[in-house]
Amino acid sequence: MPRQHNELFGALVLAKRAHAELVSVDYTAALEMPGVVGYIDKNSPAKGTNIWGAVVHDEELFAEDTIRYYGQVIALIYAETALQARAAADRVEVVYKDLPAIITIDEAINAESFFKHGKQLRKGDAVEGSLAEAWSSCDHIIEGTTKMGGQEHFYLETNAALAIPHIEDGSMEVYCSTQNLMENQVFVAQVLGLPMSRVNMRVRRMGGAYGGKESRSTPIAMYIALAARSANRPVRMMLNRDEDMAITGQRHPFQSRWKVGVSSHGKIQVLDMDVYNNGGASLDMSGAVMDRACTHIDNCYYIPHAWIRGWVCKTNTVSNTAFRGFGGPQGMYICESMMYKISEALHIDVDELRRRNLYEIGQRTPFLQEITDDFHVPTMLDQLTVNSDYEKRKASIWEFNSKHRFKKRGISKIPTKFGLSFATAVHLNQAGAYVKIYEDGSVLLHHGGTEMGQGLYTKMAQVAAEELGVSVDEVFNKDSQTDQVANASPTAASSGSDLNGQAVKNACDQLRERLAPYREKYGADAPMSKIAHAAYTDRVNLAANGFWKMPRIGYEWGNWKDPLPMYYYWTQGVAISEVELDTLTGDSTVLRTDIMMDIGRSINPAIDYGQIEGAFVQGQGLFTMEESLWSKSGELFTKGPGTYKIPGFSDIPQQFNVSTLQHDSEGNPISWSKLRSIQSSKGTGEPLLFLGCTVFFALREAVKAAREMNHVREPLVLNSPATAEKLRLAVGDPLVRRAAVKAKEGEKEWFTRIES
Length: 756
Description:
CATH superfamily of the largest domain: Aldehyde oxidase/xanthine dehydrogenase, molybdopterin binding domain
Shape: globular
Radius of gyration: 27 Å
Helix content: 25-40%
Number of helices: 19
Organism: Colletotrichum fructicola (strain Nara gc5)
CATH architecture of the largest domain: 2-Layer Sandwich
Domain Aldehyde oxidase/xanthine dehydrogenase a/b hammerhead: 1-100
Largest sheet: 8 strands, mixed
GO molecular function: 2 iron, 2 sulfur cluster binding; iron ion binding; oxidoreductase activity
Number of strands: 28
Strand content: 15-25%
CATH class of the largest domain: Alpha Beta
Structural class: alpha+beta
CATH topology of the largest domain: Aldehyde Oxidoreductase, domain 4
Low-confidence stretches: none
Keywords: 2Fe-2S, FAD, Flavoprotein, Iron, Iron-sulfur, Metal-binding, Molybdenum, Oxidoreductase, Peroxisome
Distance between the termini: 42 Å
């Protein structure tokens, strides 16, 4: 954003404790610093509004009496320059009285520190409250614990906002890097004591978001709006990378303790599971993330009897939040970890085990949603197996491993189905649009979606152009703002195109109907400029408000008999990854990845292919290299690229083949006419991310090959992310065994992993 006249800059004062009483805060030294104009703190918001929350209002905007996590915001200093504001923020003197802190999932479980969210899924015998009879029919019962770390969003543009107070009418205009304009508007209005109609939130584009700007952008907007009102001048703030990573939360770390019963042929009969995530100090969207995780525990497999319980752990860490996949990747990772354990216990090839347990049409998920004829996973498994020479490569990998001592290869083939909709937040499954045709035939488009690099604006312009019969060049997609489209749902849950596209279509349908007489009069090839001019002179309204709400969904938790569907449809896919592991260093290379996705009729294949490839690599990072480490005092250590590793160019699969489903198992072209989505397309932003785990499980196979050569008999325990360090130690060769140092009594690791 261009520099504003008389603009100020904000900087946050952050807590240096994970859990403590806030004894005193002294601003004297800070206010004497050059360029400092003022500060805001817990006394600045309108009465009763220093507390907020995306779902439950349980988070203080500014810390009041107690610090609940390291990095909690105490105050904001505003000054003439950003450097002056930051220097002054460092001079604020804070006195604490330390309190015991809960950091990890295990600590929360032991202390019974949970949010009041706990939900569960019951199916089969579990509906009546007992699985005893179901267990008795099982030939094998296997138990295990699965752990998975979180993930930093690491968008290129950190959270930022600019607030401009309008003196004449008392309104506030806020430019914010956010996925969620309405939520920003709601809380900015509340904290200022204004009606929502006097707050206009705007965003043209974001430099990435991945869910990290769905709720955690809201307090940034609130801070800056408060400062702007206090100073009566424009104020802006952009977090530096360390601040952004410390205070905005991550993907939720998960832990699952499960017990599964199977037949002698490997057919799953019963699943009993407790699923935990580390929610942090406030609930934020942790409950909804847990809901989606629990509803993806089945992945693509039929489970007759299931009892799944979700627990959101309350800890003294920054509140974790939405991240691309929103619990789905964690749930499906738990499922696939379980499949490998079953495979190894029963000595059944894991690919065959998956095949035996795949859903069939008409069967129901653990939340009783029926699998319809839109389920294409078996077809894609068959096609990708053939197209990638999978069986031949499996054999060549076995031969390679038998001939190489320090290099091992592995391969993994995994399916996915990802539910599309705002799951149980049914009210969010709506969208609005405002389309205007000007007298010269040009089109101005407003909708409630936000652009974060996923190509939504391009797709919406395409929808409008196709519906109105004009070229894309004639459609201008204005920046998203709340004074044009009210009450917009967040751009999230891979629903941006589905919801906003249908709203745009609805508006265009109205306009097309009004213009139909002129189309008929001047002919189908007449330019829009001629048609619009004629309609204008006849006093026809050339602007239309569009609206759409997603039908046929409405799942209610606790209805274990006959609930409405939770998801509108499934985006499905299959991926195969082959890796090579250097057992001496733990370094690995992804030699090849093949992906096939069912995305319906793509509105823009170039965008969708980019989403598929990007999601896969981000998932690869989640499962293999992105590791968050915390100090014992509760401070995040891995802040910035110096300590936190995200995938680079050299990490991308050396051979990367992506295709979309076009034909059925008989070779006939698939008709997408039954799809009720916009132009029969499917969401692509999130569904593919989970399949990055094929790299993890291929590495696990390579480690198994190395352990066999090293005669390691102990069960392999390899939790996500499979970093180079973990892989090197998991090989279990004589050098690793000799280097092992036994911990002294009471001695703990220097760093903490909060999924433990």
